[in-house]
Amino acid sequence: MLKWSDKLKPFSEFNEEPSLKESDLLPSHVEENIERLSNFEVELGERRNETLFKITAEIENAENALKQAEQLAHRLKKRLKQLKDLQKVLSR
């Protein structure tokens, strides 16, 4: 005859934590691919940051060059006005 504790024994197995790890469930090539994908994601993030940094630097360089060009244009307009005024005075 079965004891009461023997009848409960099969159900106690459900309460135990599974001893299998995720690595035991996945084939090694899947684990390798997951790791490669993770590394690729990290590298992609680094490349993205580098590209953003380069773009930001190019924007700053373009803005500085534009300011210099605007300043030069302003000085040239001023010089042109001076020359035209001088031409008027001399041509009288």
What are the main properties of this structure?
86% helix; 92 residues
Q: Helix and strand layout, with pairings?
A:
Layout: H1 4-15, H2 22-25, H3 28-90
Overview of this protein structure:
The structure is a single chain. With 92 residues, the protein is mostly helical. The chain has a domain at 29-92. Helices cover 86% and strands 0% of the residues. The protein has 3 helices and no strands. The protein has helices spanning 4-15, 22-25, 28-90. The chain starts with a helix and ends with a helix. The mean pLDDT is 84.
What can be said about this structure in brief?
With 92 residues, the chain is an all-alpha fold. The chain is built from three helices and no strands. It starts with a helix and ends with a helix.
How many separate helices? 3
- Spell out the helices and strands N to C: HHH
Overall average residue pLDDT: 84
Which residues form runs of ≥5 with pLDDT under 50?
none
Let me know the largest β-sheet.
none
As a whole number of angstroms, the C-alpha radius of gyration is 39 Å
Bulk shape: rod-shaped
How many strands appear in the DSSP assignment? Answer: 0
Helix content: over 70%
